[in-house]
Recover the amino acids of this structure.
């Protein structure tokens, strides 16, 4: 085999990010925070820049210990990554390489699939049922890792806490990875989080600062898991993947709890208004507990280009494995007005 021959990589295409909107308020393609980061973040970044000639703390100890007290776990049960995407790739390198097997929903969060194929592991994709994870069927699959995305991306649907508990108890998977990137937007995040299940073993929970904290551009995510999992991942991670600027920004974000509360309140309110607007315009909407809505439309391409004429960028469902849909992130107030304008009955949509 030559260096160029890696047949298992032929299944993959490079990740396609959402298109940028022509105007900031029209950004509805990438599930970012429409309200940005806490105002304290900018000052923290400036402070950290003075030390930019030094390597960052490889384990981000300060951030790690604050997160540990927030989640009532030990500091060595947390690993900070360059976005939760990096942690998903680390999990694949550690537990799926050399003939591993993963199970996930179909369509999955795209990085779960890409990271599995990147290490030439097998992937069983279990079709969604009523837009949500079919945990019963997934629990019949013997795998090294079971990925559960709660709320799911791209649908925004949730698994019930009882459903997750039962899945963890019944699944033969060696590790159940529960990705909670959007958990802060659920009706009751405290009731939904699987972090308490980590103590029972075989469960790892992923979180990110990219959504409710508005730090997508700085790349900070974290994994909560048993100590030996964290210790294993530490051995193979790039030591300085989370910059000192990103660590300082995440700490500042964490120390301003009012900001995520405001983002949550905004998101839930605008999400409800978007549902009304879209349903009145004749588009069925999948019930979402995330900061985006999956909308059904027979004319996906036309929908995408028609809203673009109003300055709005949305994500075509076919790029996410769900043709016949578009995914629309919860925008600013002004973004909602743009959407209202685009969906007016006298318009072409
Ligand atoms: N998990 C899910 C389900 C996501 O939608 C995203 C964001 N696209 C991530 C993880 C990755 O987040 P991060 O920016 O922390 O890499």
């Amino acid at each position: 085999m030559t260096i160029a021959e890696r047949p298992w990589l032929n299944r993959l295409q490079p990740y396609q990010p959402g298109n940028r909107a022509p105007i900031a308020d029209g950004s509805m393609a990438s599930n970012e925070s429409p309200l940005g980061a806490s105002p304290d973040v900018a000052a923290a970044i400036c402070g950290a820049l003075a030390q930019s000639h030094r390597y960052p703390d490889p384990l981000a100890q300060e951030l790690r210990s604050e997160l540990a007290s927030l989640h009532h776990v030990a500091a060595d049960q947390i690993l900070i990554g360059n976005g939760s995407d990096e942690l998903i790739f680390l999990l694949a390198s550690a537990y799926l390489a050399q003939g591993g097997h993963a199970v996930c929903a179909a369509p999955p969060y795209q990085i779960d699939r890409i990271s599995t194929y990147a290490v030439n592991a097998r992937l069983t994709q279990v079709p969604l049922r009523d837009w949500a994870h079919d945990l019963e069927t997934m629990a019949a699959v013997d795998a090294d890792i079971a990925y559960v995305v709660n709320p799911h991306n791209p649908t925004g649907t949730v698994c019930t806490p009882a459903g997750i508990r039962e899945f963890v108890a019944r699944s033969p998977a060696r590790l159940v990875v529960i990705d909670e990137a959007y958990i802060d937007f659920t009706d009751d995040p405290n009731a939904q989080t699987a972090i308490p299940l980590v103590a029972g073993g075989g469960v790892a929970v992923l979180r990110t600062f990219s959504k409710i904290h508005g730090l997508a551009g700085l790349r900070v995510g974290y994994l909560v898991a048993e100590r030996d999992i964290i210790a294993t991942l530490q051995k193979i991670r790039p030591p300085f993947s989370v910059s000192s600027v990103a660590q300082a920004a995440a700490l500042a974000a964490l120390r301003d709890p009012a900001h995520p509360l405001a983002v949550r309140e905004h998101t839930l309110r605008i999400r409800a208004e978007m549902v009304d607007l879209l349903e009145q315009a004749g588009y069925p909407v999948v019930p979402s507990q995330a900061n985006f809505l999956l909308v059904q439309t027979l004319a996906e391409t036309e929908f995408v280009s028609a809203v673009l004429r109003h300055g709005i960028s949305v994500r075509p469902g076919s790029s996410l494995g769900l043709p016949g849909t578009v995914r629309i992130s919860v925008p600013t107030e002004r973004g909602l007005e743009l959407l209202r304008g685009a969906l007016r009955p006298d318009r072409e949509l």
Q: What stands out?
A: Residues 83-85, 109, 149, 153, 179, 181, 208, 210, 216, 221 surround 4'-deoxy-4'-aminopyridoxal-5'-phosphate (CB under 6 Å). The two ends are 52 Å apart (CA to CA). Residues 34 and 331 are 5 Å apart (CA to CA). The mean pLDDT is 96.
